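Hey all, sorry for the wall of text incoming. These are the two entities for the joint prediction.
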Amino acid sequence: MPGGLLRVVTAGSVDDGKSTLVGRLLHDAKAVLADQMTAVEAASERRGYAGADLALLVDGLRAEREQGITIDVAYRYFATAKRTFILADTPGHVQYTRNTVTGASTADVAVILADARSGVVEQTKRHLAVVSLLRVSEIVLAVNKMDLVGYAESRFDEIVADFAAAATSLGVDHFTPIPIAALAGDNVVVRSENMPWYSGESLLEFLETVEPSAGPDLPARLPVQVVIRPRSSDYPDYRGYAGRVEAGVLRRGDKVQILPSGRFSTVAGIDTPTGELDSARAGRSVTVRLTDDIDVARGDQIVVDGEPAPLVTREIEATLCWLTDRPLRSADRFQLRHTTRDVRAVVDAVESKLDIASVQPIAAAEMGLNDIGRVRIRLAEQIVVDPYVRNRSTGAFLLVDESSGATVAAGLVH
Amino acid sequence: MTAVLRSPSGSLERAWLTDLEDEAIHIIREVFGQFENPVLLFSGGKDSIVMAHLAMKAFWPTRLPFPLMHVDTGHNFAEVIAYRDRKVTEWGAKLIVASVQDAIDSGRVTETAGQTRNPLQTVPLLDAITSNGFDAVLGGARRDEEKARAKERVFSVRDDFGQWDPRNQRPELWDLYNGRHRRGEHVRIFPLSNWTELDIWAYIEHEGIEVPDIYFAHEREVVDRDGMLLAVTEFTPVREGETPRVESVRYRTVGDATCTGAVASTAGTVADIVVETAASTISERGATRADDRASEAAMEDRKRQGYF
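and here's what came out:
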């Protein structure tokens, strides 16, 4: 976590109190400004609520405020003395699961809420499946509304055990359970005196101190976004390949290979407007010059020769999160977007899907909205991929509906 | 935002700013890679100044490969327009001005007495997008500005009426931005989505970017109106019962003069502004934007109709 930034996603079933939790977190972390609080108090009073409804801090859309539910992801920015946070507050309704996937795809930590009264329900398992599949490295189980079960330790333990069983089935090796009451603020920012049996951290303390795993040292990957050719009098022959280093480190002098063409060259320079760099690590947006005048275009990938190579392929096995009402069947055609490359794709076969109740794969010939399943995909051109478990950037793809342009699936390469 | 938002040590702040810069440049390059005819909205305000700066970095040493567009309400602060024109010349960029006054004169929109012109920007904006055939419109909106903006995607599709449908937004996964759209639709793109007001000022300080003088404390004739400090200008004359006074003020946001308030301040440098912003207990829009106060969902309602 260089820079101290942590990306957090919240997920939970409807009425588990996510917006209240986020509102409480912002409020108790003193991240709510005076005018925003005044607006929430006024809106709460207009609705006849007894006190300020902190959920109104985050439910920004008219329909959300009218119905008291969260429809779309809201991004919040706050900070404490220890760390800066980007918090994606996602909806609980099954029909909006695509927004949970949206929030989880970039998160370091997922906070999954469960209502202490209803415990682990199907939607809890679905959210757990999504965050484990997307490889969010830290998972918190926040058991909310502990006040409504008399702050009972036994009830908390039951829910943790249910959640642990589902986690094990999904291959999740650890998670952090925290008993909370978001409405009153127990264990959200300050540790609660109502649950003396709980000796762990409050949610905020956990978020301030957790160090998500940095991941393995990955081989360098630079998907080319744009070819920079100024053709100006100052730079008549300049030819640079602009893109972001998605993994590893690229250094001046590195012998590189351009994929999928397979040609070799050497990094002549790594340019930024404020000067040349000796090296660029993952996350940096740079422009690379090569020693040879070879054909490199948007969609190509620059990798370092001698490091483990990615797979160059026209066929992939993948897991999909299916995000639209229209069912997915074998032989359906799409546009596949992977790094900076768009290729035409056909789903050769739907092989199985995850049964959410049992958290086990079952045979299936098609996938419906919010299903998670395994497919085989054939492509019109080669792409340059790594398995998602090894590289979140070069292992992820979208399926896009060719006529509407809608994003219909999140894909993870096996 | 709180006073402890960023480490005062500098190292943490710089790392975070570098992350934000890299993300924004990545997004801007995707726009160039995916669209035929993008345009960058440029008002001379701090967010659009940072946008233009980032766009130039993204394509260096090539010149800015997009035109700039200003949706001009005709009620601007003179200092900002002077800054805008000077910068456009300096950068060798092309500027398109979509004029609210022209839209009023031609009867495309009707001005309501006593109302600000800010909401009237939607029609000339959409007209200019259509007549120029723009398929991507880059803007400096930030999610921290407003609760409806907190819901925006980075790539946000607008239908052929320019409308935003917040209930039916595309999932936005990883950083795989999907710019596909149908004929007549366009995509709004917000590379500064993850920036806060404080990040903008910290970045302006770090990069030494020039901003219009109106952002620094200066003596100005103001009146108290609707809980804001409003400058006395030709568009906002003193009303009956108001007593104008001269005060040291600066602007946190520079929109249309009729709805943009000033804040009392003595901040004379960007570094002073960073300190003041970090310590403020009032949000940027809450302090200075009258048009967001019209109703609980004022921004959402305008955005649905095509407002930026």
